[in-house]
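Hypothesis: this fold can be encoded by more than one sequence.
Test: take the structure tokens below, design a sequence, compare later.
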């Protein structure tokens, strides 16, 4: 019902793209990267409204990649998708002062990028890189980037990540899978 009210308001305001997206999500699965971002923002918003103050976006570059790749295959440019991603990052920041238990300007959102899949294949991809670039360009405090690294992480990626570190935002946080994964396994995960 809440999504339907936002959909109707988007129509009243002439926000056609948002209206069209809310005609699909959250009632049906997203069919595009933009729709998936709208759905994710809406879910993050409703969780915040229910006093969940620390929310993570998890492995964003893993579960959003199919939408990203499908849009590329349908002819959308990387530039358009990058703009959608930056707009999504901005929306995660502009209403943080309305949430209970959230420090103004820092809503605690984080996302995980990279890592390896179950077969050991590197999961860092074009969307991972775009998330890093969006953070560098926007210099927003959220979402915080947690970059999974290991002994096989290419030096070029580490050098690229240090450019974001130099922005002084406090991230990316480097998660060393060579240490973290064995420790989690030791504790039964």
């Amino acid at each position: 019902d809440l999504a339907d009210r936002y959909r109707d308001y988007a129509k009243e305001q002439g926000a056609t793209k948002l209206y069209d997206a809310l005609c699909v999500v959250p009632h049906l699965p997203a069919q595009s990267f933009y729709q998936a971002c709208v759905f994710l923002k809406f879910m993050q918003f409703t969780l915040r409204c229910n006093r969940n103050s620390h929310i993570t976006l998890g492995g964003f570059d893993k579960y959003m990649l199919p939408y990203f790749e499908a849009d590329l295959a349908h002819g959308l440019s990387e530039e358009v998708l990058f703009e959608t991603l930056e707009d999504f990052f901005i929306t995660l920041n502009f209403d943080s002062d309305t949430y209970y238990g959230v420090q103004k300007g820092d809503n605690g959102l984080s996302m995980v990028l990279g890592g390896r899949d179950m077969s050991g294949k590197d999961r860092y991809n074009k969307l991972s890189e775009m998330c890093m670039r969006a953070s560098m360009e926007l210099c927003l405090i959220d979402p915080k980037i947690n970059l999974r690294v290991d002994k096989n992480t290419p030096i070029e990626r580490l050098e690229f990540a240090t450019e974001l570190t130099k922005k002084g935002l406090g991230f990316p946080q480097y998660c060393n899978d060579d240490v973290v994964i064995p420790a989690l396994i030791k504790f039964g995960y």
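The longest helix spans residues 33-49. The radius of gyration is 17 Å.
Hypothesis status: open.
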